[in-house]
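Action item from last meeting closed. Structure (422 res):
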């Protein structure tokens, strides 16, 4: 019988560089990505705690002075990727992008610290890590929610992690593409272009990026004048969960937590405002264009991961989730397959992503054990059947994008090995 656990570990080791890990060994992503790194650290924690902490410490070495943790750290100055370090032209100790990504780090840290005994001599190092993560969360609160609304904004679709999701179509249609825009994509030379975002998407990504750069990535002003300013349920659910996990860790390690605690109660109240009665689901808000975004995306169900206290609301969402993918063999499609914008093979416009399944699974574990078990089994079976890829068809399970994909390997390991601890 094939040893899938060994294979998953080998993928991580194979993608590992000095102190960090590439998302894949194909040439698609030649750098360190923020949320990939979090998931990757969790994978390592099942067999090499040192590598797990190396991954996290390297990511934190790229933290900006103001607290932001960038979405990409360019350790190697290879320029095949677009937009590479020379295009972003920013960073603190490490060249980086000028935007962030879903803040999963505190959640991952809590998982790792819960299952491992920390020696006395390591406490100082852990406190140091926690203070940096706290500074990152404060950055999100101060600059991405300057009006203290309880909800943070993303200023570029890349910040959501689900770049070309139909969630952003209407907002992106409003972007006026820069005149004489000149750039060369690298991604669609490595992966079949039919499985990647369109050129028009890239024109808009690059236009927004150039605008952020022109404004020196200044977080104080950009919230107010960015071309793209969206409140995403997925990002906010992850942030709320991350804040809750960080709070527990701050308490455990005797660090200050009062301000964070206050923000958590505020967000918990405010996030339910994203609930749409008519759709009986959570929706996103385009703040820039003052519009609701009503698209059936799996990321709207990340609210379950936020562990909000409203049981009745959680149950309604779970009931919906059970119908979301019922017609398809593999779960969960990133966009509901009956929706007009669904595309079976194109990146975040329909395919199944293992990190989404993992997030939903985590959100269900304490709410609907049986359903959670089904999701876990189906996710494991999909990976065993089709391999450790970037994304998959919800209809056939066919794999697309990069292979030897690190977060697929990591989260597979976590699903397979978690029982050892829980
Ligand atoms: C990419 O390059 O496709 C990434 O998703 C951007 O972060």
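Sequence:
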């Amino acid at each position: 019988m094939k040893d899938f656990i060994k294979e998953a570990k080998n993928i991580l080791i194979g993608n590992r560089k000095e102190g960090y890990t590439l998302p894949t060994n194909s040439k698609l992503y030649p750098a360190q990505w923020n949320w990939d790194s979090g998931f990757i650290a969790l994978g390592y924690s099942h067999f090499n705690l040192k590598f797990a902490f190396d991954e996290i410490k390297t990511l934190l070495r790229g933290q900006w002075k103001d607290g932001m943790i960038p979405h990409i750290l360019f350790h190697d100055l290879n320029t095949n990727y677009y937009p590479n370090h020379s295009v972003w032209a920013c960073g603190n100790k490490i060249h980086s992008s000028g935007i962030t990504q879903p803040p999963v780090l505190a959640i991952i840290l809590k998982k790792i610290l819960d299952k491992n005994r920390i020696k006395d001599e390591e406490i100082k190092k852990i406190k140091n890590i926690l203070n940096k993560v706290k500074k990152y969360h404060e950055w999100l609160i101060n600059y991405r929610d300057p009006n203290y609304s309880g909800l943070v904004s993303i200023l570029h679709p890349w910040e959501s992690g689900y770049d070309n999701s139909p969630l952003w179509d209407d907002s992106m249609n409003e972007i006026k593409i820069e005149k004489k825009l000149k750039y060369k994509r690298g991604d669609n030379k490595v992966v079949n272009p039919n499985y990647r975002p369109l050129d028009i998407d890239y024109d808009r990504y690059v236009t927004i990026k150039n605008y952020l750069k022109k404004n020196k990535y200044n977080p104080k002003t950009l919230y107010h004048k960015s071309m793209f300013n969206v409140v995403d349920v997925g990002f906010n659910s992850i942030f709320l969960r991350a804040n809750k996990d960080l709070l527990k860790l701050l308490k455990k390690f005797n660090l200050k937590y009062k301000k964070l605690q206050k923000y958590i109660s505020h967000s918990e109240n405010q996030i339910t405002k994203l609930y749409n009665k008519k759709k009986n689901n959570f929706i996103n808000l385009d703040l820039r264009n003052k519009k609701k975004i009503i698209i059936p995306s799996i990321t709207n169900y990340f609210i379950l991961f936020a562990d909000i206290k409203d049981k009745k609301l959680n149950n309604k969402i779970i009931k919906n989730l059970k119908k979301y993918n019922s017609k398809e063999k593999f779960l969960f499609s990133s966009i509901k397959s009956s929706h007009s914008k669904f595309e079976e093979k194109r990146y975040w416009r329909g395919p199944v992503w293992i990190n989404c399944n993992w997030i939903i699974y985590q959100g269900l574990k304490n709410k609907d054990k049986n359903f959670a078990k089904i999701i876990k089994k189906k996710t494991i079976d999909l990976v065993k059947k089709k391999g450790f890829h970037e994304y998959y068809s919800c209809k056939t399970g066919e794999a697309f994008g990069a292979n030897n994909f690190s977060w697929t390997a990591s989260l597979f390991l976590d699903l397979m090995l978690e029982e050892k601890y829980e």
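Note appended to the action item: The mean pLDDT is 97.
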